[in-house]
Design goal:
Jelly Rolls, single chain, 2 helices, 174 residues, four-stranded antiparallel sheet, mainly beta
Length: 174
C-alpha cells in the first residue's frame, strides 16, 4: 500500500497512521466544538500529532479555501470533522525545484468530496487545494504532516499553467 510507506524509515508515522490519527481526532466532538469559528477567515489550533508529526484543527467558513499549495516534501493526511470539504489535486509528480511556471498535461486534475468522517492521505509531492464550497455551512477538519512542515509552496493556476508564487516558512503561520 503506497500510503503505508515511511517517509524516513522507522522515524515517524506512515501516511496511513497520520490518516488514522486525523479520522480519530475528527470524531472528538468536544475538541472540534471548542474551535472558534470566524465568519470571514479560517481559524486553526495546533495539535499534538503522533510520532513527532505536526497536526492542526482547522475551521473553514463558507466559500473559503487554501489555494494551490504543496507541503514542502512532508507526507500528510486530513479528515473532515464537520461539514464537507472538496479537494482538487494534481495526479502528477511535479519537480520541487528549478521552475517558476509549468504547463500541466491534460488529465492530471482530480477532485474528491470529503463529507464529515471522510479523509485522505497523500505523499510528499502532493499539490492540491482544499475548499469549503458550501454557501452556508462551516466545515472543520484535522490535518497531520510528517515530518513537520519545513515550508509550503503556494501556486497560482490559470488553465493548464501552474505558477510558483511564494514559499512560506513555519514562522509565518505559527
Amino acid at each position: 500500500m503506497p500510503g503505508a510507506e515511511r517517509p524516513h524509515p522507522a522515524t515517524g508515522p506512515t501516511a496511513a497512521e497520520l490518516l488514522d490519527f486525523a479520522r480519530r481526532t475528527a470524531t472528538d466532538q468536544e475538541l472540534v466544538g471548542a474551535l472558534p469559528l470566524d465568519p470571514e477567515g479560517r481559524t486553526w489550533t495546533r495539535l499534538d500529532g503522533p510520532g513527532g508529526s505536526e497536526a492542526w484543527l482547522i475551521g473553514w467558513p463558507p466559500g473559503t479555501g487554501t489555494g494551490w499549495h504543496d507541503h514542502g516534501g512532508s507526507w500528510g493526511a486530513f479528515a473532515t470533522a464537520t461539514g464537507e470539504l472538496t479537494e482538487q489535486s494534481l495526479a502528477a509528480q511535479l519537480p520541487t525545484e528549478g521552475w517558476r511556471t509549468l504547463e500541466l498535461a491534460e488529465g492530471v486534475d482530480r477532485e474528491r468530496r470529503l463529507p464529515s468522517g471522510r479523509g485522505r492521505a497523500f505523499g510528499p509531492h502532493h499539490v492540491h487545494q482544499v475548499l469549503n464550497l458550501s454557501a452556508e455551512e462551516h466545515a472543520v477538519s484535522v490535518h497531520a504532516y510528517y515530518p513537520p512542515l519545513p515550508l509550503m509552496r503556494r501556486y497560482s493556476r490559470t488553465g493548464p499553467v501552474l505558477r510558483l508564487e511564494d514559499i512560506e516558512r513555519p514562522e509565518e503561520w505559527a
